[in-house]
Amino acid sequence: xxxxxxxxxxxxxxxxxxxxxxxxxxxxxxxxxxxxxxxxxxxxxxxxxxxxxxxxxxxxxxxxxxxxxxxxxxxxxxxxxxxxxxxxxxxxxxxxxxxxxxxxxxxxxxxxxxxxxxxxxxxxxxxxxxxxxxxxxxxxxxxxxxxxxxxxxxxxxxxxxxxxxxxxxxxxxxxxxxxxxxxxxxxxxxxxxxxxxxxxxxxxxxxxxxxxxxxxxxxxxxxxxxxxxxxxxxxxxxxxxxxxxxxxxxxxxxxxxxxxxxxxxxxxxxxxxxxxxxxxxxxxxxxxxxxxxxxxxxxxxxxxxxxxxxxxxxxxxxxxxxxxxxxxxxxxxxxxxxxxxxxxxxxxxxxxxxxxxxxxxxxxxxxxxxxxxxxxxxxxxxxxxxxxxxxxxxxxxxxxxxxxxxxxxxxxxxxxxxxxxxxxxxxxxxxxxxxxxxxxxxxxxxx
Length: 447
Fold this sequence. Notes:
By secondary structure, the chain is of the alpha/beta class.
């Protein structure tokens, strides 16, 4: 009897507008296009289904964020129960998960010495910054596009309007809207700094060329090392400040569109900004339906307010649908190689989107007929992304036992310095990711 083929598990969780399940579904479809078996499990709802599986039935596990890893099977954490490669795909800056999701520290503490375990990030700036403090296997894997090619089958006359998709005002840092930067810094940094240092931080955050990652701006201004950044109380302060700057950068970008016709899909905009004369607050839209929305608008407005090298999936989706997108400067755009005619970049620190819109002329002439961006789809579909994941060879070289133990304790406890406890035995051999089965085609699939 032929042994059953192993399958890859994509772990999802409930999230507004089905954003996480949408990503998991496209990842699974990408694996299926490669001839591999894949299944999406929504946790904790599908915990019983997960418990019925053994390691011999699973090829690998990819968790969308760390939240699914909080589900235990018969009291055991998933990455220890299943003796297979397990990775966490970061949906935001890793600082948020370390500050807010306790299981993340435990996972990373084990990952220091176990090459099966690692991180995958659509943004590479945090890996570059924090690699010393988080010495684990850490792969950069950008988002892919979420096209809806059927939406372009019948010509649509786009409205002479722009659209904003996203939320504002419920940032994960927990700060109150309307709080000034000075009040925020006093509240979050008073135990670590004096007034002079806080003034230096405020000046750095407001600088015309402030770093794309606000948390790094703060750490650099205070001379905090990557290891010091991960101390629990400092980490909480950085997350609060990062969230504040994210919100302000979004609001400033939209404020620069005040006199233009804009439709908003998402919450918080009408509460935090005075109404523009030509603004409409339309409501919510499911993540998987964004592509169907784009043919009806002249351009999409995107924000990546705390990323340095990586962009949101909306940018890839818009380009795949032939829709122009306004998005802040980001080195990830250069690497993506998207059509320059579709990508209009603004300065996140000094946004002036109205000038870009005027230069593009979208609101003064009929839109040209749109067609799918075939080159974008060929490069940025989810099948090509999952090839990168499955075939990526591990580049993480384990430290010696003493260094592993020290790093694991720092991550698990969030302490700045700990006595190094000498570990016994050789480090875990570096893991190499599974290869595609012999004969499997890597031809592009439209997912």
